[in-house]
Specification:
With about 675 residues, the chain is α/β, with parallel strands linked by helices. About 30% of the residues lie in helices and about 20% in strands.
Length: about 675
């Protein structure tokens, strides 16, 4: 650290791991980071994005002033007073004319718990709408729906620091070393201590290359191989039937289905050789401590919730739940997607996953909010476009989200937003979504605000302001509170600690947490009282959070994805991220070092398919689905199997979600982003 610098401890802004480090500050600028060696998760380590995280904050593209779109269609700078008055006036006008159900609100997993709590209060108390959602709808909505039904809690069951004591690690649908690299480092230490690794993934991702067993299955066939594991485990006497009898319900119904999925049947559906399936199932079941980790390769399907049910079934049938170094562990994507879910930035819930139809819960919130929250269940974000097109939703307020890039079938959402009567976008950078906004409000970035994030293993941690925001940018919670005040609802918050205290008073899972308690180290919820240490793992001794205290088996069957390759569109397209970029790229692509590493979009294609098409690495190819076409450079690699291509959704130059199919999981309403049918055309060849 140089003379004149100071250090500010904070929590990382990228993935859900929740690493902590010190921001180096000099002359009101962030100039570097120093990892926290004492942090229980990161332990002095950071990924490349973490090391460079501070650089996007001072990018010249930052939104600095409120803007209203004028009669010529241009965004024009205005004062905060004018912008806030206009937003409040238009929202009140739409509410009077059409009712509160005509307004939808999007929160953000990049924003703090405090920002999201104020947004939730604004939506449900000030406006009176339950059309509230955020990006969990695109990543882990099926986790929340599935694990809540199976276990009574829709969150990661165990903690990151338990990984090193695991004997077997099963990773499926997670490119852990690229997307959660610090968690992957815990896994590597477990392997160095003798743990065995099973990876189930259609791609030969880096963790698959070091796995003891890699099962490469056809995209969209997860239920078949998981049922196949259960089939082997039960038939070979490897199931923990004492656990099943004493702590679960529904086993017989589940087994009636799973017994159909013999290794031969599973091989015919998934392409996994039956010998490998049997060996992996035995390895997982025979361990004393086995942990399951998954991410969006499991959840982003029309069968996403059923995929999660299947993994929960697998954990329960082996008794790998309710103990250290076991469990079902979804790796959350964005830095605060767990917190935003906890705060009920989802329809049909209140903060703390409480039921808005419960009379006592309604009275509790009414005492604080001054009005009972709506008891009806609103639209998910993936339903809002259709609701706009049919005239049900007239206005949308978006805090820190970029749905025009992140949602499937981009042309449909663009058409919907063009038809909105009123769109407010509150963000730190111009995005594809701000192009449609009637009002753009400049918010403070991470590094410029105080608050908390909740990481993937439920750890609530502090985020601290290190520098002042640029020009007239303001905190997200402040902006929303000012709009609410103009609509006649004054919350009275003066700083984020007051917001946290109010939300914790309403949420039993957070009620024992305070800023004082997490000053140096976070606490994992549930934490019901000020003297409670927090809960590193859930369902201790087989005591689940369900009404009867038992885990629930759900019978699930394999069904084909809604769109399979055919003669016209012969390839599977599966989508995801690349290690140095994040989500829609609005932050990571404004960091020079990250952009330098991967500056442009690419499409992975298997060498045999490439030879058939006459394509080499670097050639420009066109990828087309029934919804449109994008162009990008080819990357010929054995990471993908024959018949499968992979690309990311970070790049404006090749908006891959233009191609994805807009079909939803009927339970979680998450879109099918992992399987679409496409064709490949060569555009040009490098000299």
């Amino acid at each position: 650290m140089l003379p004149g610098e100071r250090l500010v401890l904070t929590t990382c802004v990228w993935c859900g791991t929740g690493c902590q480090f010190y921001l180096r500050v000099r002359d009101n600028r962030l100039v570097g980071v120093v990892p926290s060696r004492s942090h229980p998760i990161s332990r002095g380590r950071l990924c490349l994005k973490g090391w460079k995280s501070f650089q996007f904050v001072h990018h010249p593209d930052r939104l600095k002033y409120p803007m209203i779109r004028n009669s010529k269609g241009q965004l024009e700078r205005v004062s905060w007073e004018e912008a806030l008055d206009y937003v409040a006036g238009r929202l009140m006008e739409i509410k009077r004319k059409y009712g509160p159900e005509a307004i939808a609100v999007f929160g953000s997993a990049k924003c703090t718990n405090e920002d999201n709590y104020v947004l939730v209060r604004f939506a449900r108390a000030t406006i009176g709408t339950d059309h509230v959602d955020h990006c969990a709808r695109l990543c882990h909505a099926s986790t929340v729906a599935g694990l809540a039904r199976s276990f009574g809690s829709g969150a990661m069951t165990n903690s990151i620091d338990e990984i090193e004591d695991a004997e077997v690690i099963l990773i499926t649908g997670s490119n852990t070393s690229e997307q959660h690299p610090v968690i992957a480092s815990h896994m590597m230490r477990a392997l160095n201590r003798g743990a065995r690794l099973i990876v189930v993934d259609p791609r030969r991702i880096p963790m698959a290359r070091i796995a003891h067993i890699h099962l490469s299955h056809r995209p969209g066939t997860d239920i078949a191989w998981i049922n196949g594991f259960i089939n082997v485990i039960v038939n070979e006497g490897l199931a923990d039937m004492d656990f099943v009898r004493n702590h679960t319900t529904g086993f017989e119904e589940m087994w009636e289905v799973a017994k159909e999925y013999t290794p031969d049947v599973v091989e015919s559906i998934t392409g996994i050789p039956k010998e490998d399936l049997i060996r992996a199932a035995r390895m997982y079941a025979s361990a004393e401590k086995a942990m399951i980790f998954y991410a969006m390769g499991i959840t982003q399907h029309v069968t996403g919730t059923h995929n999660v049910f299947a993994l929960a079934n697998l954990a329960m049938v082996t008794g790998h739940i309710g103990k250290p170094s076991t469990g079902v562990n979804p790796l959350r994507g964005q830095n605060n997607v767990q917190g935003a879910s906890d705060l009920a930035v989802v329809p049909g819930k209140l903060p703390g996953y409480q039921d808005p139809t419960d009379p006592e819960v309604r009275r509790k919130f009414a005492r604080v909010w001054g009005v009972e929250p709506p008891a009806w269940k609103g639209f998910a974000s993936t339903q809002v476009s259709d609701a706009i097109m049919d005239g049900t939703v007239k206005a949308v307020y978006i805090m820190g989200e970029n749905p025009v890039r992140s949602h499937p079938d981009i042309r449909h959402i663009e058409e919907a937003f063009e038809n909105l009567e009123f769109l407010v976008v509150q963000d730190i950078f111009p995005t594809e979504t701000t192009k449609f906004a009637h009002v753009v409000l400049p918010a403070t970035a991470w590094g410029e605000k105080d608050g908390t994030f909740t990481n993937t293993d439920r750890r609530v941690q502090r985020v601290r302001r290190a520098v002042a925001p640029p020009a007239e940018a303001r905190d997200d919670w402040w902006i929303i509170q000012e709009v609410a005040r103009r609509m006649g609802d004054d919350y009275g918050f003066e700083d984020p600690s007051q917001i946290f205290d109010e939300m914790a008073s309403l949420m039993p899972i957070y009620s024992g947490i305070s800023y004082d308690r997490i000053e140096r180290e976070g606490i994992p919820w549930p934490c019901p009282s000020p003297d409670h240490p927090g809960t590193p793992y859930l369902h201790r001794d087989g005591k689940f959070n369900t009404p009867d205290g038992r885990g629930r088996f759900f019978p699930v069957r394999h069904v084909d994805p809604p769109e399979l390759p055919d003669e016209e569109y012969p390839f599977y397209l599966t989508t995801g991220r690349v290690g140095v970029h994040w989500h829609t790229g609005s932050m990571s692509r404004r960091i020079h070092y990250l952009e330098r590493e991967v500056p442009e979009p690419f499409v992975e294609i298997n060498p045999e398919d490439a030879r058939t098409l006459g394509v080499r690495t670097g050639d420009r190819i066109r990828v087309c689905s029934r919804r449109g076409c994008v162009e990008a450079k080819a990357l010929v690699t054995d990471t993908v199997s024959r018949g499968v291509v992979f690309s990311t959704f970070h790049f404006e130059e090749a908006p891959i979600n233009l191609l994805t199919i807009n079909v939803l999981d009927p339970i979680a309403l998450i879109p099918e982003l992992k399987v679409s049918a496409v064709r490949i055309e060569k555009v040009e060849r490098n000299a």
